Amino acid sequence: MKVGLFIPCFVNELYPHVAMATLELLEGYGVDVAYPMEQSCCGQPLANNGDSSGACEAALRFTGVFKDFDYVVAPSGSCVSHVTHHYPWYIADNADFQRLQPRVFEIVEFLQDVLKVEKLPKPVHFPHKVSIHQSCHGLRELHHASPSELMIPYQSRLERILQLVDGIEIGLPERRDECCGFGGTFSVDEADVSVAMGRDRVAQHEATGAEYIVGADPSCLMHMGGIIRHNGRTIRPLHVVEILTGRGGAA
């Protein structure tokens, strides 16, 4: 298979190590990966701010860049859910997008649903306690876990894949799927509310006794990471691929 690596714009600028860990993980499973240099933002910020014309242009650009790949994989649940769940608002009738839509995956989805991995490419030892953060887009649009409001049996993609790591201890905050307060432009439009929600969420993760907050969406980790640094907390945010590749700090 030929996989197109989609790296969201803010990951490219602020978290390139997450992009490199994603590439390393895919190549570790023998996947042929290409990074199209002409890729750009998926258009989610434009859509969130009501710029339908700009969001449509971004959707068409994304589709044109990635249409010929067998799969498209990204380390961001929110960006993937925007492509798979919200592009139809703009380009539902586009034949290239119709073919592409079911082939766009968030990295954990891809590992579990396409590659069906049962072990990591190389042994990883991470003797630390982590608290899993379920991001809203990943939770409710990509089905990363069972939303508590549905009152159905609990499952968690992140928990299952982290169990492949030797020495790790996995915890969950008391309210396991509460929002961190980022919400993209919400954090700008309603900064005080966003920060208050983020402080509460960090405190919930700290209460588990974890050393790290682990998630699959860098935007949420970015938001909580800023609050952690500003308030001098010791818990650290990590993207799941950083742990799966052994890049997760001083293990």
TrEMBL record:
Pfam families: CCG. Residues 3-83, 130-224 form the Cysteine-rich domain. GO terms for cellular component: cytosol. GO terms for molecular function: oxidoreductase activity. PANTHER family: LACTATE UTILIZATION PROTEIN A, UNCHARACTERIZED PROTEIN YKGE. This is Cysteine-rich domain-containing protein.
